[in-house]
Amino acid sequence: MSVYNISKIYPSDQRSHHLIDRLLADEGIRRDINLDYTCGIFDDDMNIIATGSCFNNTLRCLAVSSAHQGEGLMNQVVTHLMEEQFSRGNAHIFLYTKCNSAKFFRDLGFYETVRIENQLVFMENKKNGFSSYLSSLEKTRKSGEKVAALVMNANPFTLGHQYLAETASLENDIVHLFMVSEDASLVPFNIRKDLIMKGTAHLHNIIYHESGPYIISNATFPSYFQKDENTVIESHAMLDLTVFCRIAEVLGITRRYVGEEPDSVVTRIYNGIMKQKLPEGGIDCIIVPRKEWKGNPISASTVRKAIQNHDFTRLKELVPFSTYEYFSSDKAAPVISKIKASNNVIHY
């Protein structure tokens, strides 16, 4: 068996990135837009014959040239990426793969978390990772005739989010509020969490949860082995629903509340799939009409646009006082700068 060199591919190495794009395309994979580390294996002619990447604590865009499959190159790529992850202090690692590749990654020490048949498998390197997460949630279970759930990214927390939480709180005995803890938003998680909790502090039947690694945001759901954007959205929704139904069973949740989405194509498709699929798991999907301001629905996108335009008069009309107070303070300056510099404050 030949011995090949594996090395990090730097962003400035345009030749290697071009070769990686070609290899991924040959293997039916698109390069994911969310990558923060990439490696490649070179043959004797300096062609890339295997590659893999990371984003946070996930492995992505793994591929071996068809001419070199069966040579143990994927094992070498995964080992290299795992060493990179461990050097970052990440011990809990995840990957997404096609269904027909899951057995290979099981042989490399990964365990199946959930499977979306004929689409993807979500895997992790801890045998009891998901079951331990469910056990930790079970400790927060409280009895109630009506038990509901909300999942919020809140980037940032708006009057729309507050209205959704108030509606769920009023109509149920217990509300489990899952805050997307993945740090892939313009507003960091520690701030989003603080604003959510301050903005809902008057509601006394809410139980707060950090989502952990099992509830994944639109921003970082992988798209690299799926044929088009709609397939990506549908796969993300199905993964979310599969995970959520397991969570709901543990907590006795029978209702999930979501905000109506008149503007975002992604969320509208997502909500439609939830409306169809959640009842199959015995869970009602309740879509709440958006709270409006001057006849327009309030969304996190419109709030980010107001911040980007430094329109604090408008901002004050769209968010609870706790959110406005934060963005009016000096400590919000780095986040405001990040929002102002962004080309993507209005989400598709």
Describe the fold and architecture.
The protein has 348 residues and is an alpha/beta fold. Helices cover 39% and strands 20% of the residues. It contains 12 helices and 14 strands. The chain has helices spanning 14-26, 73-87, 102-107, 129-138, 159-171, 189-199, 229-251, 265-277, 300-308, 312-318, 321-327, 333-341; strands at residues 5-8, 37-42, 48-55, 58-64, 94-97, 111-116, 120-124, 147-152, 174-179, 206-210, 255-259, 284-288, 292-293, 296-297. The strands form 3 sheets. It has a 7-stranded mixed beta sheet, sandwiched between helices. A hairpin with a 3-residue loop joins β6 and β7. The longest helix is centred in the C-terminal third of the chain and has 23 residues, at 229-251. It is globular. 37% of the residues are buried. The model has no long low-confidence stretch (mean pLDDT 91).
